[in-house]
Amino acid sequence: MTTSTLPVPDFTARIAERARRMNASAIREILKITQEPDVISFAGGLPAPELFPIEDVRRATDAVLTRYGAAALQYSTTEGHLPLRRWIAGRAGIEPQNVQIVTGSQQGLDLLGKVLIDEGDVVLVESPTYLGALQSFQPYGPRYVQLPTDDHGIDVGALEAVLKAQPAKLLYAIPNFQNPTGRTLSLERRRRLVELTAQYGVLVIEDDPYGKLRFTGEELPGLYDLALEMAGDPEHSHVIYCSSFSKTLVPGLRDAWLQAATPIIGKVVQAKQGADLHTPTLNQMIVTELVDDVMPRQIEIVKRAYGERARDMVAKIGEHLPAGIHHTTPEGGMFLWVTLPEGIDTQPMLARAVVRKVAYVPGTPFFALGGGANTMRLSYSSATPEQIDTGLKALGETIREVLT
């Protein structure tokens, strides 16, 4: 092959400004360095693969291909497989026209950012918040305002003060077993948040991938439910609901959905047509085959396993980590949050932890405006009791080394 004498294009200069704002996922980058089989990773929020209903998915695939034939392998409508949309709508008390199937919750967040956020729009986020949402919204140029949180979720008094001081376009929240902290927004605060955002004309994105994975305590109504009750009609609700089958069935099928008023759904449809035309037909049909029979059983299996692993991790934190460290105690989901003494930076500490064959996610990437250097996210969902014990012992040794 001969070398061209033509000048090499300045590719960097040709990258669009919105693309320059993109950042790599901190979690995905960490996963690259924890691929060695002897590294115990509490980093990735991965559903437990040994719990996947493989035989049920195989039977569902055979049933779908037998029933639908070539139609299961054909292009389909952008809005999604109608029987699946009807099933989702029926459980929510709405119509299929208010439901959009998306290829994973992450695509839903990206499409919502594309159709809702203009350059400079004020977007309210929890502090800390899901870094994948920040990654999705960032290219559209939002101006983030962080809302303080405690063990009961968003401080709604602070939210009210923010809304009185400045207009906001959008609020993004994970009320159930929040990623990254594992906290749950209390019922009183949910009601107040819905009231305040309605009063000040702020759209709310309720991200709820973990809501069905409650292993202790009582189930709470979602923000979408409360807004629908208040508005009386999905066409007047200011809350947009996002959820997924990734945590309740399997993540690899990449099936998720949005619930919203039809003007928003209509624009999401147009944005999705430009992104991928539609979510894979076969995958949607497989999920539809599983939702009534397999998924309820699967949810119970997953809740029981995650509950045991969360309790084990909480106990081992008390046993292996130094005194004076704060952690959340989740009622469901896949994560808990650890706060170390001031002065410790968990990002450079990660390299020391990996030497001891344990990994976590440093907290800073979960803060829209920076901060949280002394925090970390731990996931218990795919860890065995032995890994939890060994990994937290190694993490405790790492923290003590940094403290000395």
Automatic annotation (TrEMBL):
Q: Which residues form the Aminotransferase class I/classII large domain?
A: 53-395
Q: Which domain of life is it from?
A: Bacteria
Q: Which cofactor does it need?
A: pyridoxal 5'-phosphate
Task: Extract the InterPro entries matched here.
Answer: Aminotransferase_I/II_large, Class-I_PLP-dep_aminotransf, PyrdxlP-dep_Trfase, PyrdxlP-dep_Trfase_major, PyrdxlP-dep_Trfase_small
Q: Which residues form the signal peptide?
A: none
Instruction: Establish whether keyword Secreted is in the entry.
Output: no
**One Pfam family matching this protein:** Aminotran_1_2
Q: Name one GO molecular function term.
A: transaminase activity
Per UniProt, the keywords (alphabetical) are: Aminotransferase, Pyridoxal phosphate, Transferase
Under the heading Gene3D superfamilies, the entry gives: Aspartate Aminotransferase, domain 1 (3.90.1150.10), Type I PLP-dependent aspartate aminotransferase-like (Major domain) (3.40.640.10)
Q: Which CDD domains match?
A: AAT_like
> Which PANTHER family has this protein been placed in?
AMINOTRANSFERASE, KYNURENINE_ALPHA-AMINOADIPATE AMINOTRANSFERASE, MITOCHONDRIAL
What is this protein's record name? 2-aminoadipate aminotransferase
